[in-house]
Amino acid sequence: MKSKQLLSLFLAASVLSLASCEQETTSSSPSQSPSDTGSSQTTPSETPSESESTPEPAVDYSISQITAKDQSYTVRGVIDAKTTKGFVITDGAASVYVYLEAEPSSYALGDYVEVSGKTGAFNGMFQFTKEAKITKLTETPSFTIPEPVALTMATAASWQSKTSFAVTESKEYKWRSTAGEADGFNTLNLAGSEVTIEPSYMPSEFNIEVGATYDVTAYFAGFAGEKFGNYAAVYLTSLSKVDDGDIPTPDPDPEPSDDYSISQITTAGTYTVRGVIDAITTEGFVVTDGTAAVYYHDKHYANDYGDDVVLGASVELSGEVSAYNGLYQYDYKDTLQFLNEDLDVTIPSATPLTAEIANGWNASSHPVTAMKEYSWTATAGKSGNFPTLNISGSNVTIEPTYIPASFNVQEGKTYDITAYFAGYSTQNKYAGVYLTSLTESDGDTPTPEPGPSPDHSIGQITETGTYTIRGVVDAMTSAGCVISDGINAIYYHDYDVADLVSLNDYIEITGDVMKHYGMFQFRYGSKITVLDEEPNITIPSPTPLTAEIVTGWTAATDYSIEAFEKYSWTSTAGTTTSGGKTYDTLNIDGSNVLIEPSYLLSTFDIVTGETYNVTAYFGGYSTEHSYAAMYVTDLVLAD
User: Fold this and answer.
1) I need a labelling partner for 289 at 20 to 30 A (CA). Which of 145, 209, 506, 589 fits?
2) Predicted model pTM
3) 218-227, pLDDT tens digit by residue?
4) Three-class SS of residue 262?
């Protein structure tokens, strides 16, 4: 294994030889040469001007005040990670790297320090340069360092789309990784993600073996662009080797989760869910609760559970989920229990697969609601040594995965198929499916009759067009309403909506669906009918909003119907000005993304400076005006 430090010395010599030709220099930096120094932002009012020979200490000691490079700051924090060239300090809300150009032997983890000096930028992340003044403090800090955040594919993907990062993005993450190599350097990539993750300035106590699997915690240290290898740098805080043969003994009485629904799985983490087995493969099975599905992967399940694994069996899964081919799944290390009760699960009919839906599978991540059963007709083909069941009109390769012996796929034959979507391999360029039925067909598929779709679910909406859906009105705005079917939701835009529907009405709507701020919505002029029957719909609780979720919104210009979700968070109201007009904001701590309530009802009175508990539906992100739009459903003063 070659040393990144040797590469750094070589590149540093190259940089020095060119210094006289450059108008702007960067600070000394970790591992590779700097890729992008990041753009300067507004300088805080507390920062001394460059004309002052002796900068005064900043009044604000928080790390979050750092918003620009080549500026002077004084901050305080606890050392929470050490490298061979410096250390990371955090104040619980933000973090920053202090580059010392040498091993920080005079400092220990847990030291409370004050750092004063000018900031530089490396790989888009702010850091103090080696000239910074460091003082150990004797007092006890008042803040608490948060637990590491579970790293998701969406977060990792957002890193590679940016050239600069706020100090609030320098946070500690946790994930599981099988160590690899890229261009002679160690990698600790996240399963299912194409982003290369490399530890920088790794202390000697961390010994990485290629091929071994580790539980990792580390601080994000920036993203090196194409010129320097396209990788995310991290500073390790812990590295624990995972023994693949160590299968934990199932807990005979696991602590039940408050929510057993599979739809609760929105990020990698620990969950307990219940459902019935609806598809069996050679290496696991699909569990569904009627609204969403998840895969349990265990190639030895036949030895471990024998005849218990049958279609319709009720099970409980408890443990950590991770992403594979962009879909979350459980594996053999998690707890599987067969239940002695029949769960109240109604499995929906398979959704007719279209070329548009298949084309939408070509993505690096998917919500659990995307793992649904589809039906289509295909003539079997081959890709390399693998059978394919592609749908006409789509260029996406569809491969059945872990095929049971009962399904004999023969090239050239035409089949009627039902199968669960199993994710998309961005590395090998195919969509996986888990077969549930396969019967020979004469290929004579009837042409569907024109008219409204017989499927009234909102989840059928995968592209713009004309649809008929049914749902409950779950939010009213001054220019429309939100309709939910308990699984998905959509906005209807019409200034006269109050004359047509009321909150909690069960309605059917037929009309044209367009995109606004990247989000699907029905346009005015749609036909609305208030239905007399009682809906079998339970509106899910809002998802707690995090800074990571908000940051993920800015990385996309188009969203699937699943992205129109209801969130809850606490916010201190502010304002922002655009085009000479002032708008309310309900931003979330830890993110610099503007969150603006759209078409707010007059019953919601926002007072700047007051703190509120908010629930609202995400209504898309305006790339033109740089804000996330939200449709507020509830707004109450926080205690």
Assistant:
1) 506
2) 0.38
3) 999 999 887 7
4) helix
